[in-house]
Design goal:
- It contains one helix and nine strands.
- With about 120 residues, the chain is mainly beta.
- The protein has one domain.
- The strands form three sheets. Strands 1, 2, 3, 4 and 5 form a five-stranded antiparallel beta sheet that branches.
- A hairpin with a 4-residue loop joins strand 1 and strand 2.
């Protein structure tokens, strides 16, 4: 499962979910960006996002932005039915938390080069 972020300069970026509680960092070009889609499953099912992780956010050069802590779960089943296989997939967002202070401290431990960099909480409430 991943979030697909689309930016006005024409590029799209993915933030992949991980089973580990590690801090993730992705590099985006300076632009105005928003969460465009949630991608789930083997067939890369793409759904419009029911919420906005980024709401046409202006991302400045050198900016380091926190957008939230997310937990999601999914299910997948495949049942043989005569000449085809019936596939069912589902997912749900189980938690969205604002752990800015904890995540920022973890980021600075995991990525020492960012220890002195100013961060900004862009979590939408």
């Amino acid at each position: 499962m991943k979030f697909a972020i689309r930016c006005r300069e024409g590029k799209s970026y993915d933030i992949e979910f991980s089973a580990r509680p590690d801090v993730q960092m992705i590099q985006l070009a300076p632009s105005t960006c928003q969460l465009d889609r949630i991608v789930y499953g083997e067939n890369q099912l793409r759904l419009m996002s029911p919420f906005r992780l980024l709401r046409n956010e202006i991302l400045d050069p050198g900016g380091v932005y926190y957008v939230g802590d997310f937990a999601a779960s999914g299910t997948f089943s495949a049942t043989p039915v005569f000449f085809y296989t019936k596939v069912r997939q589902s997912w749900r967002m189980s938690a969205i938390r604002d752990n800015y202070a904890e995540a920022t401290a973890s980021l600075k431990r995991v990525f020492p080069a960012f220890a002195s960099v100013q961060t900004e909480n862009r979590m939408t409430h």
